[in-house]
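> @MW can you paste both from yesterday?
MW: sure, first one:
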Amino acid sequence: MTFQPNQGLDQEQVTERVDRAIAENEVVLFMKGNRLMPQCGYSKRALGLMAQHREDFETVDVLASIDEFRAALSAHSGWETTPQAYVDGEFVGGSDVLAELDERGKLESTLAAE
């Protein structure tokens, strides 16, 4: 089976899904793949960092409609790349930012939604 990106949702559906995920979840990670099978090293790294400090957070797989997710996420963060983590509706960053926060001992408190 060959993976063909962008065979999923249209832009309006993706934008609605992104807006809803950010609004309805205290902590959400937009990533390539899912918790059981991350599909890129950066997503795997971000997932692992977040899981060290917080058990309950939502993940959203962007692969089926990656271009549409890039556009929708960029509207929230100004970044087109994934992964992207949001806490209480605010953009936190990608795997490098999460790693930096972890190194400084601030990731746990950052992920502790209010």
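MW: second:
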Amino acid sequence: MTSNIDSLFKNADPIVSIILNNALSDKEISVEDGVTLYNTTGIDFHLVGLVADEIRRRRVGDIVSYVVNRNINFTNVCIKQCGFCAFSRDFREEEGYFLPTEEIVRRAKEAHQLGATEVCIQAGLPPDMEGDLYENICREIKKEIPDIHIHGFSPEEILYGATRSETSIEEFLKRMKEAGVDTLPGTSAEILDQKLRDKISPGRISVKNWEKVIKTAHKMGINTTSTMMFGHVETLEDRVKHIAKLREIQKETGGFTEFVPLNFIPDEAPMYKHQLHEGIRDGASGNDVLLTHAIARIMLNNSINNLQMSWVKEGQKMSQLLLMWGANDFGGTLINESISTSAGSEHGQLLRPKEIRRLVKEIGRIPVERDTNYKILRKFDNEIESELDKVTDTSRFGSYVELIKINKFNYKNPRRK
């Protein structure tokens, strides 16, 4: 640490100083310590950020990674009615859509031609779904594009697929791996506290089953990401306990590639629009977002090296700040992003690689393109233009607002005659 930072420590709260010095010594930070860091102000607040940035530098250096990918949210029809979700539509609603497998494959091929190495596939849980739907989607994609990485199907979807297939989670994951799934998104985590989940998303996958899917996947050699949705009705302790739980899972399995804090987007979320819960917040403040990323970096030191921010939720300039508060990954280009957009995010559906590289260089870091498992594919000493950078008319990709109005993709309710 520099002498300037050392001098700041002299003016810090003694307890905060001990916690941060322990972090810099690679000691594990407790839940109680994490809550203490969340309550910092003034010099202490800035020290949390400085320490997180120093730990980031030690773990991953000064490179900032990103992946060229495309999100394919193939249906918004869902049997669940989570209070935070503005994306899903009940099967009775007119705005329900369902992309046929050939359209999913077409989108994957288009992305691959533009340089994407990954397709991220997630969707709602449609009623009367065929048990082999997810497998068939993967097989058809791999048949056309064998070298594309399929990052798909959250623990909620894996559980649903297993249920629809009348098989075990382990057997279904085995079938998915054989069909072509390479990694799983660790979404549907929200906050891993059952009482809170019962409040904001009754009927959602339980904490027990979320952990079961994740641990089983890891033991089968299927890596996953990990996430946390914050800024709604959870407490600071809920957040810290969630991060600590992920840390314990990582110690056991080593299968998490990254951690992604996801700020609650309130605008169209039912539980916020209708004020369903007392004290519900409209997402986290700027300071809160900074602290959440920094504390995650500090608590996950020695466990999960990569901390990704969400430019879709935070915007480009806030994302630059987060790279100085512990984050080291810019996420993906996305091309199509429906879930945050439907909730009211205004930061767009596509961020071109050259725009990511510009944002990274502006803060003095080194941009690199990675694959899903964080293998560096290209380091950009000199600027080059990729196929995706050359696209001038992004309307070709469509938007969520347009998608729900396309008649040929309207969801056909099998219960209607």
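> thanks! Strands lie at 63-67, 69-72, 118-121, 149-152, 181-183, 224-230, 256-263, 329-332, 366-370, 376-379.
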